[in-house]
Design brief:
Blueprint lengths: L13 E7 L5 H12 L4 E3 L8 E8 L1 H4 L2 H5 L3 E9 L1 E3 L8 E4 L6 H8 L4 E5 L8 E2 L2 E2 H6 L9 E13 L2 E8 L5 H12 L3 E11 L2 E2 L4 E2 H4 L15
Parallel strand pairs: 1-14, 3-12
Antiparallel strand pairs: 1-3, 2-3, 4-11, 4-12, 5-6, 7-10, 8-9, 10-11, 12-13
C-alpha cells in the first residue's frame, strides 16, 4: 500500500526562526515541529552543534524547504568564547582534552593573531564535522580514530575581539558559508602556541534573521503556545 503524503496545513507552513537551546540537536527541533504541525516536509537552513545556541531557521512545508539554498549560502554572525590552554579532539568543549599548555598569550599577541582572521582566508575543516570526503562524512572516520588530509576551503571573516581575560576571549565573528568557528578557535590556539578550543557559541544572525526575532525553543515545547505569529511567509 502506497503511503499517502500528509496534507500540509497552510497556517503552519512558513519560515520559522528559532532560538535553539544548548544540548539540543538540530534534528530534534525538526522532529518536535513535525509532531506539532503534522507536516513531514520540514528542513533547516544551517545546522548548529548540540552545545551551541542561537538562530536556527526551520523551513516548514514543501514550498519553503525549496528555499534552503538561499539561507545556506547567506552570511552568518556568531558570538564565540574561546578557551586557551586546552586543545580538544573536536575543537570544542564537547571533546576530549588532548593537550594542555601553561603559556598565557598577552592581549597584544592575541590582537596581532586576530589580524590573520580578517577578510579572505583559507580554513581546514575539522575531522569532527559532517563534511564529506570521497563520499564519507569526516566525523564517521574521526570516531574510528582515523584522520585524513583535508583540503583547505576559502572563507571570508570579520573578527572582532569583545573581551579577553585569560583563559577566555570573547569574539564577534561575521563569516561566509562553510566557516567552522571550531576551526578558527583551534587555528588561533596553534598560532599563539598555547592551544585553544571553542567553549561556547551563539549564532546571533543567519542571513537577515537576528536572534531578537527568534521564538525561544522552550516556548515551542508548550503545546498551548501559538508559534504562528513568528512564521514568515516570504523573505
Amino acid at each position: 500500500m502506497v503511503k499517502q503524503p500528509k496534507i500540509e496545513t497552510p497556517a503552519f507552513c512558513g519560515i520559522l526562526p528559532v532560538h535553539k537551546a544548548t544540548d539540543t540537536t538540530s534534528f530534534s527541533l525538526i522532529s518536535m515541529m513535525r509532531k506539532r504541525t503534522q507536516i513531514d516536509k520540514i528542513g533547516h537552513a544551517g545546522t548548529l552543534d548540540p552545545f551551541a545556541t542561537g538562530v536556527m531557521i526551520l523551513l516548514i512545508g514543501r514550498l519553503y524547504t525549496k528555499l534552503s539554498d538561499r539561507f545556506l549560502t547567506a552570511d552568518k554572525q556568531y558570538h564565540a568564547t574561546i578557551r586557551f590552554g586546552e586543545t580538544t579532539d573536536t575543537y570544542d568543549s564537547d571533546g576530549q582534552i588532548i593537550s594542555t599548555s601553561t603559556r598565557v598569550p598577552t592581549a597584544e599577541e592575541l590582537d596581532l593573531a586576530l589580524r590573520s582572521f580578517q577578510g579572505d582566508c583559507k580554513q581546514i575543516p575539522p575531522m569532527y564535522s559532517a563534511k564529506k570526503v570521497n563520499g564519507k562524512k569526516l566525523y564517521d572516520l574521526a570516531r574510528k580514530g582515523v584522520t585524513i588530509e583535508r583540503e583547505p576551503v576559502n572563507v571570508r571573516l570579520s573578527t572582532q575581539l569583545l573581551s579577553y581575560t585569560y583563559p577566555e576571549a570573547e569574539l564577534l565573528i561575521d563569516c561566509s558559508k562553510g566557516t567552522y568557528i571550531r576551526s578558527l578557535a583551534y587555528d588561533l590556539g596553534e598560532m599563539l602556541g598555547c592551544g585553544a578550543h571553542l567553549s561556547a557559541l551563539t549564532r546571533t544572525r543567519s542571513g537577515t534573521f537576528c536572534l531578537e526575532e527568534c521564538v525561544p525553543q522552550e516556548m515551542l515545547r508548550d503545546p498551548d503556545f501559538d508559534f504562528k505569529p513568528y512564521l514568515r511567509k516570504s523573505l
